[in-house]
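Archive entry. Fields below.
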Amino acid sequence: MIEVQDLTKTYGDVTAVDHVSFTANKGEILGFLGPNGAGKTTTMRILTGYMPATSGTAKIAGFDVFGDSLDVRRHIGYLPESPPLYPDMTVEDYLDFVARIKNVPSEKRADHVTDAIRKTSLEDRRTQLIKRLSRGYRQRVGIAQALVHDPDVIILDEPTVGLDPKQIIEVRHLIKGLAGNHTIILSTHILPEVSMTCDRVVIINKGKIAAVDTPQNLTSQLKGGQKIRVEVNAPEDALRQALTQIPGASRVDVEQIPAGGNLIATVETTQGSDIRSEIAAKIVQNGWPLLELRGVSLSLEDIFLQLTTDDSTHAEAIPV
Amino acid sequence: MHNLYAIYRKEMRNYFVSPIAYVFIGIFLFLSAFFFNFFLSAVMQQSMQMEMQSMQFGAPAQFNVPGEVMRAFFGLISTLILFFTPILTMGVFAEERKRGTMELLMTSPISELEIVLGKFFASLSLFAIMLLPTASYLAYMFLHSDPAPPWRMLLAGYAGILLLGGSLLSLGTFISSLTENQLIAAVLTFAAFLLAWVLDIGTNASGGFGATLQYLSVIRHYDDFAKGIVDTSALVYYFSFIVLFIFLTVRSIDSMRWRRA
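PREDICTED_STRUCTURE:
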């Protein structure tokens, strides 16, 4: 349904999107995960025809987003970072207007508007002026306008921003309910949201794709069973060497605690092995004071931070 | 076409929900009524004086009261629109960009031309609505004149005003598409109008170049309309002007896609 190949966008010296490629299949919910300035919004703006790419291609429903822009726009609903609202219109007038410019036939307009209002629970605000709505309600109107013409593809840029927890859950239900009939791309900072609603995730950082996979694969791929955290008073190289030698240790990271002279070693293990006793034994064997040993597990947040932070020593593991 | 209508409809509604449109129209009508009254009494006084003179000297005076009043009145209106139209057009695109709704319009299956034309016709309609009551003053005058002057003159005068207004609105719309700041748009538009105006006065037919500049002046072609004459070259001028600036506005909107977000 959506095919992006080598998409690049540069503004002078800055490369906002750097040879990005991914696809979204029909009926799928694809998540876009990345820090601020990663290129999520720029990519979405290129997909919706708001701005042209510097190079590369993007196709939606078989139509090229640049060459067949009008055709593409007939098939998409879009919620930009800030909802594009007219403050002096009422909710239903606004949705009626959007339905018109999205080419909804006149006999179906009223039904579509009512449908969109129902799906976003805006019934009791139907005749209210948009400028009188709270942030959360405005966000809902923004989502409603992306749905009103029942498009094949829905692109949502941070759809749950500004919503309270109850509303966020409602929106997630809404999005999950739309899958199958619609193809959805949504961008977010909220990691649990991605694992809860998305079929697949694209992690993007500094314009480049860091990973594309299902949330489960991403967490288990790097999980490898367990991660063990030890605090030791030992020389760095010797410690690293000792720990790497232990069978079952797939990765060893050693860093200095800023305050004291001790080291923190993080050992990732291969699937299925519990090497905590081996680690303890090794350390004691070398005569180093073992101050702390605990197991931690990797979450999507860790993966995200790992993939999007240059300095991996900043990744804080969440205790089990 | 339905897209154009959708934009037109939205613009018209937005005009009339805020008090600005009503205040605007109110002030305009107040000023036009005031000056109409002023012109009418001044011209009538003059005609009475001339009649007395002619009685003294014998030669009957030909004094066209309605014609003179109409001419003065249309002259005034053209000056009033110089000030009023920049305020009418300043928000047309500047506000959309500021609110982020340009993003909605540009990612919907609607062409730039439809957007621009929808907005232009809406501002032209508002302009026409603003003028409508003034027609009642002139009509009243015409009805009570003896002999009644040809109605064609009235129509010609309003045709001229609409064309002049349309031109200035198209120029204002274009300038509005260049900036996000409404105030800058208004000031630039006013300056541009002034420039277009002054082209007439500044050059004093100094050879071919001067004559060309004068031809380009937006007010020169208006004089004939004010006298009740419809000149086809003037029609061509105004239509070309409007088409030019509509085209430039469409280009300007399109270029927004290429500017840094």
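CURATOR_NOTE: The interface with chain A takes residues 2-3, 6-7, 9-10, 13-14, 17-18, 99-111, 257-258, 260-261 of chain B (CB under 8 Å).
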